[in-house]
Amino acid sequence: MVITDRDGGIVAAVELDDCSHQASHRQRRDLLLEEVLRQADIPLLRSKDEGVLVANVQTFLATVEQRQNV
């Protein structure tokens, strides 16, 4: 999933790592995704725990909102 701003610009990517991420083809895909996002300077918010991921997204969005209000 991606988080966008009001203009449609990508602010971050979000991924919940379920058990499928243990497969070798998924690990290769994850490495590619990480590199593409790094080169595009797009943060990747990722966790194996849904609750942790939700908290990380909320914290990230609060930080982005705070920066925009400065």
UniProtKB/TrEMBL annotation:
Alphabetical list of InterPro entries matching this protein: DUF2726
Origin superkingdom: Bacteria
GO molecular function: helicase activity
Protein name: COG1112: Superfamily I DNA and RNA helicases and helicase subunits
Domain DUF2726: 2-49
Keywords, alphabetical: ATP-binding, Helicase, Hydrolase, Nucleotide-binding, Plasmid
Organism of this sequence: Yersinia enterocolitica subsp. palearctica serotype O:3 (strain DSM 13030 / CIP 106945 / Y11)
Pfam families the record matches: DUF2726
